[in-house]
Design a protein that fits this description.
5-stranded antiparallel sheet, 5-stranded mixed barrel, 32% strand, 229 residues, alpha+beta, globular
Length: 229
């Protein structure tokens, strides 16, 4: 009985004298952001883990934390997969919403939609995920943005109708929010003829200087494009 009383009595002393459990980096997003900001350059997952002294058994929760921070737009990734602090760069992440007339919008997870003029839309296709920076207000009073980085290309395959003009083949997408025509080299047409509905596998994405290019992987006889009017 006396031994038990001594053991119970000793517990508060041990807790009082002991140090509080250390906060692990994987449970503290602020530490991640501070480390990235201090680095001043994009870091890969491995580089960030090294700077945070993440142990092998902590790697899985660390990766989960990064994924959550990316979903919350606290961090973003460039095309090489390296991590940047969105807020420090005054960048906004969002999805591109195209319009048949050639302009579009960036739709962020929070906040107002940002207008993208036709020149900016030539860098992307409807649905792509981008980083933008506010650039001012257009003539209609809409907040306007410029694309800083395309961080995810959504369109790898596009359905549309094959056309030929002046000897040049191109696909007009059935998705009207993709306003750019997709060029097809004659050797990549796979025997398809103008007027047929085709599946275009994109080989070159638009970047403002280069238009989208594709090779055809499938074609059907002339018929209405699925979903078109």
């Amino acid at each position: 009985m006396s031994t038990r009383r001594r053991t119970i009595a000793a517990r508060p002393t041990l807790i009082a004298r002991g140090k509080p459990p250390a906060t692990k980096p994987d449970s503290e997003p602020r530490v991640h952001l501070q480390t990235l900001a201090k680095a001043g350059v994009p870091l890969t997952d491995a580089e960030l883990a090294q700077r945070l002294a993440i142990k092998p058994d902590e790697r899985e929760p660390f990766e989960r934390r990064l994924a959550a921070m990316e979903r919350e737009a606290q961090i973003v990734r460039n095309r090489k997969g390296a991590i940047l602090v969105a807020q420090k760069l005054h960048l906004i992440a969002g999805r591109v919403e195209g319009h048949p007339d050639g302009f579009g919008f960036v739709v962020p997870e929070e906040g107002e939609d940002l207008y993208l003029g036709p020149h900016e839309m030539r860098k992307v296709l409807h649905g792509d995920r981008v980083l933008v920076r506010k650039s001012g207000v257009d003539q209609r009073g809409r907040a306007e943005a410029k694309i800083v980085e395309v961080i995810e290309r959504i369109n790898t395959r596009v359905v549309g109708r094959l056309n030929r003009e002046h000897g040049i083949l191109f696909v007009q997408p059935s998705e009207r929010r993709i306003s750019q025509n997709i060029h097809v080299a004659a050797e990549d047409a796979g025997g398809a003829r103008a007027g047929q509905v085709v599946v275009a596998e994109l080989t070159v994405q638009p970047d403002g200087r280069t238009e989208p290019v594709a090779a055809l992987s499938k074609c059907w006889a002339k018929r209405p494009i699925p979903g078109s009017r």
